[in-house]
Amino acid sequence: RYDAGKDGGGDLMELKLMMEKLGAPQTRGGLKNMIKEVDEDLDSKLSLGGFLLIFRKAAAGELQEDSGLHALARLSEIDVSTEGVKGAKSFFEAKVQAIHDASRFEEEIKAEQEEKKKQAEELKQRKAAFKELQSTFKQ
Fold first, then answer.
1. From the centroid of its chain, how far is CA 55?
2. pLDDT in tens, 37-49
3. Cβ-based neighbour number of residue 21 at 10 Å
């Protein structure tokens, strides 16, 4: 759901959005470090394999307590050795779906606000056009 480019990996902005939705926002440098630490194919993106690596490192105690990866692992705990790759994939898909549902609600609110702004602007334009037409008749 966060893979806006539909390229199979999470880039910097997609990771930023996901971390914000999980309640653990990161700095740009922190996000870059997160990706760099688990970027197995050096494409500067976070893949499913990279996600799984986060949890392997967390289980092995290889993540710094104050790192974004540690925060991500803590917020989305899953035991890959017990669940396996398919279980982890399902877990992440369910997590992302829950976050997406919350995002959809936010998008609906934003759309309503935009519609209200558009209607207010149209009303303002109609009033201005009416006043202009009205001034023509007063002369």
1. 20
2. 888 778 888 777 7
3. 20
Q: What's this model's pTM, rounded to 2 decimal places?
A: 0.46
HEC readout, the chain: CCCCCCCCCECHHHHHHHHHHCCCCCCHHHHHHHHHHHCCCCCCCECHHHHHHHHHHHHCCCCCCCCHHHHHHHHCCCCHHHHHHHHHHHHHHHHHHHHHHHHHHHHHHHHHHHHHHHHHHHHHHHHHHHHHHHHHHHC
Given a contact cutoff of 8 angstroms between Cβ atoms, the answer to whether 76 and 92 are in contact is yes
Question: CB of 34 within 8 A of CB of 26?
Answer: yes
